[in-house]
Structures are given as C-alpha cells and as structure tokens.
Design a protein that fits this description.
It contains eleven helices and 25 strands. With about 475 residues, the chain is of the alpha/beta class.
Amino acid sequence: MPAMKWKNWKGLAAAAAMTVAAHAATAAVPLPSLGANPAEVSVSGLSAGGFMAVQLHVAYSATFKRGAGVVAGGPYYCAEGSVLNATGRCMTHSTSIPVSSLVSTTNSWAASGAIDPVSNMSGSRVYMFSGTSDNTVKQAVMDDLKTYYQSFVPAANIVYKNNIGAGHAMVTDDYGSACSTTAAPYINNCGFDLAGEILTQLYGPLNPRNNGTLGGTFTEFNQSEFISGHGMAATGWIYVPQACTTTSCRVHLVLHGCKQNYTDVSDQYVRKTGYNRWADTNNIVLIYPQTSTAATNSCWDWWGYDNAAYAKKSGPQMAAMKAMIDRVTGSSGGSGLPAPTGVGTSGATASSMVIGWAGVSGASGYNVYRGGSKVNASPVAATSYTDAGLAASTTYSWTVAALDASNVEGAMSAPASGTTLGGSGSGTCYTASNYTHTVAGRAYALWGLTYAYGSGQSMGLWNIYAITTLKQTGPNYYVIGTC
C-alpha cells in the first residue's frame, strides 16, 4: 500500500466529503442481481486490498471458492488488531511475523464458526506477486504469506511471482508509471500482464483478452444498501460483460490499495489495471468496491481501525462485500454439486470436437463452456457433447459444470484442451519411418508403439521399417493422412 502518512488524513477526508457526496448522489443505482455462478467466485487486491483479499478468502472460504490473487499483501490476521504490527512486521518486516500462531488462530476461529471451515481452501487457488523494488510491503512479508497459505492450500495450487523489479503498485503491461516507481496512482507499466496472470491462475486457460472497445457495461452502484459508514464509500463500480446478462458468469472481486479509491485516483484502478479486457472475453463479472476518504488513508480495514472483528465474517466491511457477492450471484452457495472429473476431448474434425466427462451423482444435466462461454442451448443429459462450428487447426479449451434439479450449477471442472483438424487441402505432409517421425518431434513412442503428436493416433510399431504419412494440421498437431 502507499506508505501510510498518518497526519492530516482526517483533514483531507473532510475536504473531500462534499465532492464524494455530490458524485454519489447523481450516479448510484442498485447492484444488479445477475444469477452469476456462486461456485466461480474469487477475489484479488493490491496492498491493503491484498490483505483484505486474504481476509475474505480465509474468512469466507465457502464463498470465494476459486481463491485469491494477492499483490503486496500478507498473512491472515497479520496485524492482530495493532496498527504498530500493521506498519511494522506486516509491511517492513521489522520483526518476525508469527505465522504458526496465525495458523492456530485461523483454525480456532474456524472451529468456533467465526470464519468458514478451513477445509474449503483445499480446493482453491492462490496467485501471489511481490516486486523486488517494493519497499512498502517487503518481500519477506509475502514469503510469510506463502508459508501461511501452505497450511491450507496445496502447494501445487500456489503461484508466487517475485522476480520483477516493480515498486509498490498494481502491475500492467501497457499502462502506468515506470516499473520501479512507488507513487500515485500506484499502477506501474512493467511489461507484465498481472491481471491476466491472476485470472488465469484462478480460472484456468482463458480466451484472448479484448484489446479494443469493451462490449460490456460499467455501472456505478449504491454501496449504501450494504453498509453505511465504516470507511466505505457511498458507491462502488461493477463491470458486466455483455454475455453476462443472459449467461451465468463467474465473479471476481477487485480491491484497490490505500489512496487508490475513486476520489484519490478517479477511475484509473477501475479501468486501467487490465482486468476488464480479460473479463470481457471470458464472462467474468468484476465488482470494484470502494473505500471512502473517511477510511485511514483510504485503506481497507486489515488492522482494526474500524472494528475489532475486522478479520472475521462479522467484520462490517467483510460482511458488506459478502452481501455484494450474494446479490450478484442471487444465491448463498450454489447447488453444492462437485466439479465433473475426467473431462477430455476426442473425435476432432476440422469443425467439431467431442467433450466427454465422468457423471456426477445427483446431477440432472450439465452445461459445457468453451473458453468461458456456454455452448449448449439446453442442459446436456448425457456425459458427452459435440461442440460444432469450430475453426480448423485451432486449439480450444472446455469446462463442464453439473446442474441440480433446479438447473443451478455446481463447481466448474478443470479445463480440457483440444485442437481441431486442418480444413480440406490444408496442412503439410511428411512420409517417413516411425522412428524418424519421433526424432523429428512429430510423434512419440510408448511401449514399442508410435503415436502422432496432437491427435494421439496409433501409427504402429516404433522402428525404421514402419512407414507412415503424417499430415500437420496445426501447431504440434499431426494426423495420419495425405495432402
């Protein structure tokens, strides 16, 4: 977070109050109920927003099932209600952070019901980022966050990026200050698409981002119906991709850092941090809650400046943002059906692919998504689906969700990729021995047999005598055939 300059913040807040009130009075509309998928909710944030993202992920782990992206944040309940801890060990790492004690507190609060069961985190994902030039929240703090998370999240589900010379800021690949800068608006151009990396870690492979005019809608919504005061502004922002008015979409909560709310930096954090262009092509609703200038340095409450229960589900800011998620999803938890397993692709043609999966007990049907967009017009009763109308020699990614008797979706499956074949007359052919094909990287050998890369078609024995013609129909994709 931008360095905390404690003096004069109350005066600055008072000076800005009338401007904020006037702005809010002319813009606020109710946060829409979109019927978004409650099994596909995640959160990310920078600095104070990073600490708050951890708080929400841990305390409401049954809600933020997909996980959290944390930029320059720290372990859950790091400050333990003390501003001295917040500005000391949790930022400069001037003293050690008692990670094992924080893990114990987490387990204790979960057992008492103050936060959700920690078992929910075992299926979530985490992306962590710390710049090597960040002297506001030191990398040692983020190192401790990784240690903390390893008590609850599988190591394979954690990504930690800590080798870019970024200052204390949200990082983009095309907007902001010089990479090593630590100054308003705390958005730096490091040639690195951090928003895209976060969303990919949380949701799996994504469609390419929209670098042009966005097709969705920005709306300033009324936060006051969820909370009044407590350091939160009267309004927040939401971005809704066009498809999300008719399709059950994912939801990602984006939290700004200190001195980064709308009054401090206008709409730069809402529009320039890179999230929207990924959301637009991947059916992700983005909610951008806002603090007010009445909050200390416009920060989220991660050390108890507003309420002693700040890190629990009963914390005012925490409960308000949970209520926002409930509004957008129109649910408090989804169908509860697990994610389908064994999702795979087969039967590729130049324009179609068969997606198959293992059945889910209790499911009345399934929805199939290509790159985040639903492709079936009505629920799929079987455990396979043929997706048609595809482009030749193109790689796609599919996921599947089970539906309950009310057609409410459960958790989304892991993605499965497949490449369509080349169109008529397209491709390059290679005629050679199966041994030569493997040496050239067009095929691979397994237990004495040879298989074409991409299609996996069996070519027969792996030796210099078996001759096969392979047709390349895409990047690293070969089929048996002729040109």
